[in-house]
Amino acid sequence: MVDVLKSTNIPESHKDLLTAPVAVLATNGTAGFPQVSALWFLYDEDGALRLSLNTTRQKVKNMQDRPNVTLFILDPASPYRTIEIRATAEIEPDTNGAFATRLGQKYGGADVRANDKPGETRVVVTLHPVKVNTWG
């Protein structure tokens, strides 16, 4: 059964998916093709969906030019149960790495900056939902 919401609220029936280990982010590339990446995310205490990304990544460059994105989460226990969140991305610097550290705590204290090279910086991407679709 498809439940297409006309609002931006996350339905209670699918809110548990916001604690899933991985989501898929689709951004729009310069040639018009989607660029899709699996990534870690955090459903933050204030109810916002946030990402920690290195500014050298293509997805960050895409969002700077074209902020409309989709975050897709698949239920690991039931792959036909999903949530698709279409959103506008807001990008802010994570100068001191505080958000990257907080995101890492969701993943057992992982250092999300471990693969960053010297001089590279991180941003916090906050997703502002414009449409939510659920399945299952």
CATH architecture: Roll
Range of strand content? 35-45%
The radius of gyration is 15 Å
Any idea of the CATH topology? Pnp Oxidase, Chain A
Terminal Cα span: 6 Å
Oligomer: single chain
Biggest sheet character: 8 strands, antiparallel
> Secondary-structure element sequence?
EEEEEHEEHE
Report the helical percentage: 10-25%
As residue ranges, the low-confidence spans are 1-7
Q: What's the arrangement of secondary structure elements?
A:
Elements: E1 2-4, E2 23-28, E3 34-39, E4 42-43, E5 49-54, H1 58-65, E6 68-75, E7 78-93, H2 98-106, E8 122-135
Structural features, described:
The chain has 136 residues and is mainly beta. The chain has a single domain, classed as Electron Transport, Fmn-binding Protein, Chain A (Pnp Oxidase, Chain A, Roll), CATH 2.30.110. The chain is built from two helices and eight strands, in the order E-E-E-E-E-H-E-E-H-E. It has helices at residues 58-65, 98-106, and strands at 2-4, 23-28, 34-39, 42-43, 49-54, 68-75, 78-93, 122-135. The radius of gyration is 15 Å and the shape is globular. Mean pLDDT is 92; it is low at 1-7.
Summed up:
This protein has one domain (2-135): Electron Transport, Fmn-binding Protein, Chain A (Pnp Oxidase, Chain A), CATH 2.30.110. 12% of the residues lie in helices and 45% in strands.
Please describe the structure with a list of short key phrases separated by commas or semicolons.
Pnp Oxidase, Chain A, eight-stranded antiparallel sheet, 8 strands, 45% strand, globular
